[in-house]
Write a structure and sequence with these properties.
The protein is of the alpha+beta class.
Length: 627
């Protein structure tokens, strides 16, 4: 670590609440996990050797705390002054508004202009569309979504000599292993949730099968411990992924299993009442499917109409074993978030920059993004507004011979599309010898024959030749601009997308440049509320005052519905206020739908019902007495 700065004092001075004094110490462990994933030193654990992506990379730590906005701009300035090469932003910042009015977006522009590579978490708002932040949509930021890991480290439960079942230790003081008689809590409690007291010694030395729900984990554990239990096996009562969970101050050893495994244990115990079990609390590797995109990973399209395709790529961020300073008796936890897929890419950027120091910022970015492996889902290739160019492939980035600019071609969003457009795609040979590249447009969304035609031309010529594949030979270090001609004719609603694939003849590596056009059906299907603000941007909310409610109303793809098609209706549920209607004069919030309401005459909560066609919801706005 070569830099360590704290901004908690700034936050506290400006009225923010923090859990600690002005210190660089990581209070909750989030930053420790992020730093270790990016640059942790290789070390031995019970599950084998664990290492960060770029072991021993020099780290700069900028502690923004829980209320990071006040110190945010100072931290960016300091990182630039400290000459950081790569800035990891595992912090979701959804600045609801137009980037033209967003100082955060402008600050990011400055850093990229100075040559700093920024890697930003896409966020955990998935699977809904348009859940990215203003910062994450910046064209020069690498925005990272999450994909599942093919394996996860946890524990196991084996009953009666049967095959071990996947289990995850809860964050209690667990031993290495534990053996005992299984007990079905339904024999004492029909709900089996352990949310009440049981007779003393009624569970003596038993490993108790307990249902999820009903009360906090800490209460369950304390109730079982008071009845003499030896351990708890908590089973989920609905489909879902078991994982580690906090348990407060409880000290009873415990693991969690998923619904099918829990039912299997209950069935076996029903058939054999004296069944014994062995719990291994950690260090067991379980294989899982690594296909597709993590459900929580935020998706595009971006917040503004014509913007880059985001996220740029995915990295492992689900079923992830990470170092943790707190909440982990053995120092490790299983985590799930784009906060942890992001340092995978930051660490990869550090490795790539160290291996190839002569690369420019845009070349580094292209090698990381465009060498990604294609991600598939049940329907085929995953939509590029969910997976970008694909999954991180550091080996391919290290071997890459070509840089592409831009790294994606966003054609924007709209309700109709006719005519044609030309997009320049710069191709640069990064090797010291000539190379021939095969370039081909591969369309996998919509009907390419009817709705969209993509052609490639190494020259600017008219009319464009009807060719979807070309060969381009570049001398060592040479750059050339290829014209990507995209034509639409009465394009139907939906996603129209694909890759411009570039394959080197010497290496055989294929690079993918995503392209995407979204055609909306203008039917409201999603509504996202971004809060209220007083007139002139004030935070005042006094009785009888007018305030603005900010919404983003999209269709099934997340594409913004035109304001004249919103079919808005509003009414007062309680509080005595008034719905004054849509206000299209507020430009600071970009293409958001802004509803102007008047608060009621008395302090308290004001509730309004907001309807956009067939979708509706209620919004509460508090009002406070005037000072």
């Amino acid at each position: 670590m070569i830099v360590a700065r704290s901004y908690l004092a700034i936050n506290i001075a400006l009225g923010g609440r923090e859990r600690g004094a002005d210190t660089i110490v990581d209070v909750d462990g989030h930053g420790t996990s992020v730093a270790a994933i990016a640059a942790g030193v290789a070390h031995q654990t019970s599950a084998g050797v664990v290492s960060g992506v770029a072991p021993k990379a020099w780290l700069g730590i900028y502690n923004l705390g829980d209320n990071g906005w006040p110190g945010w701009f100072q931290a960016l300035d300091d990182a630039l002054g400290d000459e950081m090469d790569i800035l990891n932003l595992s912090w979701f910042m959804r600045s609801p508004g137009n980037p033209a009015y967003d100082p955060t977006y402008k600050a990011i522009s400055r850093l990229t202009e100075e040559g700093m590579l920024l890697v930003m978490a896409a966020g955990n708002g998935g699977p809904a569309r348009r859940t990215l932040s203003t910062v994450a949509v910046h064209p020069h930021v690498i925005t990272v979504g999450a994909s599942p890991s093919s394996s996860v480290i946890g524990g196991s439960v084996a009953a009666g000599g049967g095959a071990p079942l996947e289990a995850f230790p809860m964050l209690t003081p667990n031993p290495v292993t534990l053996e005992g008689a299984l007990f079905d809590l339904r024999q004492l409690d029909a709900a089996a949730t352990a949310c009440r007291a049981y007779p003393a010694d009624s569970l003596r030395e038993r490993i108790v099968l307990t249902a999820n729900g009903g009360c906090p984990f800490e209460a369950k554990l304390n109730n079982l411990m008071a009845a003499g239990a030896r351990a708890m096996v908590l089973y989920l009562t609905a489909p879902g992924a078991a994982g580690r969970a906090t348990a407060g101050a409880a000290t009873l050893p415990a693991v969690m299993v998923n619904q099918p495994d829990g039912q299997a244990l209950l069935s076996r115990l029903s058939a054999q009442s004296d069944l014994r079990a062995v719990i291994v609390f950690d260090g067991v590797a379980h294989t899982r499917s690594a296909a597709g995109i993590s459900g929580f990973s935020s998706r595009g399209p971006t917040l503004v109409g014509v913007g880059p395709i985001k996220p740029d790529l995915l990295a492992v961020g689900q079923h992830f074993t990470a170092t943790r300073r707190t909440l982990a008796p053995n120092g490790y936890v299983n985590v799930n978030a784009t906060s942890f897929s992001t340092p995978m890419v930051s660490g990869a950027a550090a490795v790539l920059k160290a291996a190839r120091p002569s690369l420019t910022l845009h070349q580094l970015r292209s090698l990381l993004v465009n060498t990604a492996r294609v991600i598939s889902n049940d329907a085929g290739v995953a939509p590029v507004q969910e997976a970008g160019a694909g999954g991180l492939n550091l080996n391919a980035a290290l071997e890459g011979t070509v840089a592409l600019l831009p790294t994606s071609i966003g054609l924007g969003m709209g309700q109709i599309s006719t005519g044609w457009s030309v997009y320049p795609l710069q191709v640069t040979n990064l090797t010291d010898k000539p190379e021939t590249y095969r370039m081909e447009a591969v369309h996998f969304g919509g009907s390419a024959a009817r709705d969209m035609r993509v052609r490639l031309n190494p020259e600017w010529a008219w009319p464009f030749p009807n060719q979807t594949a070309i060969n381009v030979t570049l001398a060592a270090g040479q750059s050339r601009t290829i014209q990507v001609y995209i034509e639409g004719d009465n394009t139907e609603p939906g996603e129209h997308q694909g890759f411009i694939q570039v394959t080197g003849s010497q290496t055989g590596l294929t690079y993918n440049v995503p392209y995407w056009l979204g055609i909306g059906d203008n039917i409201p299907a999603t509504s996202r509320y971004f809060g209220w603000v007083g007139r002139n941007g004030s935070a005042e909310n006094f009785p009888n005052q007018e305030v603005f409610l900010r919404f983003e109303v999209g269709d099934r793809l997340g594409i913004q519905v035109a304001r004249d098609s919103l079919n808005f209706r509003g009414s007062v549920v309680s509080g005595g206020g008034e719905v004054l209607g849509l206000d299209n004069s507020v430009i600071e919030y970009g293409d958001h739908a802004v509803v102007r309401v008047r608060l009621g005459p008395q302090p308290g909560n004001n509730v309004y019902r907001i309807e956009w066609g067939r979708i509706s919801g209620t919004i509460g706005v508090p009002s406070v007495p005037r000072p």
